[in-house]
C-alpha cells in the first residue's frame, strides 16, 4: 500500500494500470476509518484489480465550521486498516491540492437534494458533489463504493454522475452496525461512553418500528419513532421522514411505493453529536 499526496503522482501510479485494462475501484472517505469503511474497501479489493482509498476531510461540505474542526482525524490508524485489507493506494491530499483555487461550481438536483439534509445543511451536497467529482476526475475509477448509511448522499451522487456523464458505476453498500445495532460512523468517536449507550436507542427504535408498521399507518409509525427517541433524555430528533427510496419524497401510505425508507437525524449528548441512520420498510 502506498500513500499518494498529489493528483499528478496518483495519475502516474494509475497510468499503466488503465492502459493495461486493469479495473480501478475508488472508496472515497473522510478518514477516521472503521469497520463500515473496511467493508467498502474489501468489496472494492474483491471486485477490482486496483483499489484507491481517498482520505480527505472536505471543508466545502461542512456548513458548520465547529463541526469541521471537531471531525476526527486518525490517519496513522487509517493507513494500517487500508494496508491490512489489501488496497493499493491511500490518496491523502492537502486542502490546497484539492482546491488550488475556490471551486465555484454549483450542483442542484431537486427534489433529491432539497429534502431532509438539504435545507438543514445548506451547501452540504454542493460540497459533496465538488469533492466527489474531483476525486472521480483524479482517479477515473470503474467503480466507486459508498455506504448506505448516507442514503441521501448516494442518490445525489448518482444524479451528479448522470448529469456530468462520468463513466463510473456507483456501488451502494449495506450499513454496517455494532453488535448492539448502532450504525457505525466516524462521529461515534466523539461520543462519551454514556452517550454511546444512549445512541443505540436510535437503531433499536428504528428496528422496532418495522414491526410496528405492520399494523399502523405511515404517520403513526413516524410519530412512534420520533416520540420514542425523544423520550430518552439526551436524544433529540432533528427530522424523521419516511420516503420513496428513489425520489426521496415523503409517502403517505405503505402502498405509495415498492421501495420505502425511513431516514433519521438525531442529536445525541450535550455538545451534541449529530448522528444519521435509516431503515428500509420495503
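Q: What amino acid sequence fits the structure above?
A:
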Amino acid at each position: 500500500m502506498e500513500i499518494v499526496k498529489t493528483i499528478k503522482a496518483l495519475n502516474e501510479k494509475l497510468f499503466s494500470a488503465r492502459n493495461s485494462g486493469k479495473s480501478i475501484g475508488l472508496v472515497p472517505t473522510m478518514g477516521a476509518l472503521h469497520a463500515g469503511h473496511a467493508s467498502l474497501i474489501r468489496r472494492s479489493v474483491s471486485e477490482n484489480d486496483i483499489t484507491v482509498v481517498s482520505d480527505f476531510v472536505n471543508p466545502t461540505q461542512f456548513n458548520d465550521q465547529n463541526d469541521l474542526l471537531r471531525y476526527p482525524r486518525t490517519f496513522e490508524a487509517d493507513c494500517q486498516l487500508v494496508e491490512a485489507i489489501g488496497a493499493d493506494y491511500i490518496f491523502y491530499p492537502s486542502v490546497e491540492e484539492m482546491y488550488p483555487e475556490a471551486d465555484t461550481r454549483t450542483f442542484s438536483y431537486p427534489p433529491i437534494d432539497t429534502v431532509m439534509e438539504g435545507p438543514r445543511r445548506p451547501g452540504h451536497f454542493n460540497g459533496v458533489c465538488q469533492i466527489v467529482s474531483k476525486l472521480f476526475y483524479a482517479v477515473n475509477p470503474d467503480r466507486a463504493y459508498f455506504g448506505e448509511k448516507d442514503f441521501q448522499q448516494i442518490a445525489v451522487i448518482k444524479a451528479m454522475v448522470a448529469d456530468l456523464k462520468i463513466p463510473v458505476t456507483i456501488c451502494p453498500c449495506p450499513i454496517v452496525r455494532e453488535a448492539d445495532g448502532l450504525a457505525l460512523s466516524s462521529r461515534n468517536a466523539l461520543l462519551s461512553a454514556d452517550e454511546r449507550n444512549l445512541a443505540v436507542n436510535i437503531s433499536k427504535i428504528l428496528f422496532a418500528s418495522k414491526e410496528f408498521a405492520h399494523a399502523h399507518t405511515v404517520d403513526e409509525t413516524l410519530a412512534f419513532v420520533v416520540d420514542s427517541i425523544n423520550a430518552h433524555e439526551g436524544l433529540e430528533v432533528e427530522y424523521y421522514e419516511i420516503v420513496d427510496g428513489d425520489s426521496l419524497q415523503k409517502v403517505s401510505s405503505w402502498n405509495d411505493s415498492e421501495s420505502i425508507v425511513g431516514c433519521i437525524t438525531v442529536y445525541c449528548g450535550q455538545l451534541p453529536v449529530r448522528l444519521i441512520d435509516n431503515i428500509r420498510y420495503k
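Q: And what stands out in the fold?
A: The mean pLDDT is 97.
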